[in-house]
């Protein structure tokens, strides 16, 4: 019986050391591979966790930088718009001043005219029937010609 017992233990040892897979690994070698695989899996999971945290953190940083740049761009655009509005206001004021000056010059240079012809005709009625000679400086002066027609 002792020999049967010894044979059974030898058979168990041989079974434990006998390769059973296509890779020809023994049981102890398979345990080592299994332990290493679990270690690599744990390390990989830790790296994924670190990568995820890093990705989320850096996305927040990118958003802050983008917001900062957008704020700076908005401030620059507002400053440019204000400068353009100031230049437009100055240009409008200058154009209005030039328009007023032009109107004054045109009023001074405009031909003179008789504005109250009815009063003029009324004051000349006592001389009705008399010959009147109207003189004007030159026949090419439209202002003098314009005065002769309403009176005559």
Describe this entry's structure for a reader.
The protein has 152 residues and is an all-alpha fold. The protein folds into 2 domains: 87 residues; 41 residues, no CATH class. The protein has 4 helices and no strands. The longest helix is centred in the middle third of the chain and has 83 residues. The radius of gyration is 56 Å and the shape is rod-shaped. The mean pLDDT is 81.
Number of separate structural domains:
2
**Beta-strand percent range:** under 5%
Could you state the order of secondary-structure elements as H and E? HHHH
- The number of helices is 4
Outline the biggest β-sheet: none
Measured between the Cα atoms of the first and last residue, the distance is 166 Å
Low-confidence stretches: none
Given helix and strand content, the structural type is mainly alpha
Q: Work out the number of β strands.
A: 0
Query: How much helix, percentage-wise, in residues?
Result: over 70%
Radius of gyration: 56 Å
Question: Which whole number gives the mean pLDDT?
Answer: 81
What would you call the shape?
rod-shaped
């Amino acid at each position: 019986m002792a020999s049967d017992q010894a044979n059974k233990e030898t058979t168990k040892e041989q079974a434990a050391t006998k390769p059973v897979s296509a890779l020809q690994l023994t049981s102890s070698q398979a345990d080592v591979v299994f332990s290493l695989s679990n270690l690599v899996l744990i390390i990989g999971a830790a790296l994924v966790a670190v990568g995820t945290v890093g990705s989320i953190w850096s996305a927040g940083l990118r958003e802050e930088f983008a917001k900062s740049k957008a704020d700076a761009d908005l401030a620059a655009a507002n400053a440019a718009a204000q400068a353009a509005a100031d230049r437009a206001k100055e240009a409008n004021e200058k154009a209005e001043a030039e328009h007023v000056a032009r109107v004054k010059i045109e009023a001074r240079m405009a031909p003179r005219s008789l504005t109250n012809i009815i009063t003029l005709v009324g004051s000349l009625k006592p001389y009705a029937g008399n010959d009147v000679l109207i003189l004007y400086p030159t026949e090419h002066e439209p202002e003098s010609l314009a005065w002769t027609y309403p009176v005559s």
